[in-house]
TrEMBL record:
It comes from Thioflexithrix psekupsensis. Its EC number is 1.6.5.5. SUPFAM superfamilies: GroES-like, NAD(P)-binding Rossmann-fold domains. This is NADPH:quinone reductase. It comes from the Bacteria. Coiled coil: none annotated. One of its GO terms (cellular component) is cytosol. NCBIfam families: PRK10754.1 (NF008024).
Length: 324
């Protein structure tokens, strides 16, 4: 029997239960995966606490993983037993084995290890759509990325710098500032020591930035708007500090006819062709050396509660893996 982390009721880390599960046989167009590495992301906490609602209870959390095809269902021709694959963002990753639709996974290039894939699929494809689709960063742009030393933040810093942008990032302490700077952030701002709005205005000679990528949410949202140039774009793609308060739309016109979007990776990878586009864009950036990912933290899957606690308390940097 395989084991998985299941949630029977939402709440704190104590709701993450290590249980035996019955995986079953793959149906038509399905694969059975033996998973080798699982990514940890803030969205997992949103589902655990109930901020985001799962389709049903109980459920297996987690949105990305890598593994090996153990069995193929009928009508599957593009995958074979033994193929190395990865996926994101598909609920149910916190498990040793699982069934998954064949059109929800992609084959891994030989140059990408299972651990790197599990650590980078969700974060890396998020960075791809943020930088290449939601707002297409170009040489000469100045951008602001919050949580610049986090998993997505470090990749955005690297990739945006590779694209020719000037990168400003906010971080919580000097150690994280040094990490962000080492990963392409030209101007890390320690938000606990200085006003990031004023610092952004100084760095841009009062003009503001072309785009703000904000995964923090409630604590930074309104100040982020003040960092934008006229006609700038606010990309609110997470809410680590809580949900953003309701917004009077006239604020956007008052601050310079700003654009505002609240995107999710699920919508940018809704079809197989969209998934392949995002994944190939990520794999290409890795092949070009534009991206690298550090994995400073690894936890046993059974110890997912401690991993969640570390992520919630901002004790982690870069990527964190759960190993089944």
């Amino acid at each position: 029997m395989a084991h998985a982390i299941r949630i029977h009721k939402t709440g704190g880390t104590e709701v993450l239960q290590w249980e035996e599960i019955e995986v079953g046989q793959p149906a038509a167009r399905q694969l059975r995966l033996k998973q080798t590495a699982i990514g940890l992301n803030f969205i997992d906490i949103y589902f655990r606490t109930g901020l985001y609602r799962a389709a049903q209870l109980p459920f297996i959390p987690g949105m990305e993983a890598a593994g090996v095809v153990a069995e193929v269902g009928a009508d599957v021709t593009e995958f074979a037993v033994g193929d190395r694959v990865a996926y994101a963002p598909i609920m149910g990753a916190y498990t040793q084995e699982r069934l998954i639709d064949a059109d929800k996974v992609v084959k891994l290039p030989d140059t990408i290890t299972d651990e790197v894939a599990a650590a980078i699929m969700l974060k890396g494809m998020t960075a791809y759509y943020l930088l290449r689709q939601t707002y297409c960063v170009k040489p000469g742009d100045t951008i602001l990325i919050h949580a610049a030393a986090g998993g997505v933040g470090l990749l955005v810093c690297q990739w945006a710098k590779h694209l020719g942008a000037t990168v400003i990032g906010t971080v919580g302490n000097e150690a994280k500032a040094a990490l962000a700077k080492a990963n392409g952030c030209d101007y890390p701002i320690v938000y606990t020591k200085e006003d990031f709005v004023q610092r952004v205005k100084t760095l841009t000679d009062g003009r503001g930035v072309a785009v703000v990528y904000d995964s923090v949410g409630k604590d930074t949202f309104m100040a982020s708007l003040d960092c934008l140039r006229p006609l700038g774009m606010m990309v609110s793609f997470g809410q680590a500090s809580g949900a953003v308060d309701p917004l009077e739309l006239s604020v956007l016109s008052q601050k310079g006819s700003l654009f505002l979007t609240r995107p999710t990776l699920m919508d940018y990878t809704a079809t197989h062709s969209q998934l392949v586009t995002c994944a190939n864009g990520l794999f290409e950036a890795l092949a070009q050396g534009a991206l690298s990912i550090a994995i400073p933290q690894r936890f046993a899957l059974a110890d997912a509660a401690h991993a969640h606690a570390a992520l919630e308390s901002r004790q982690t940097t870069g990527a964190t893996l759960l190993l089944p």
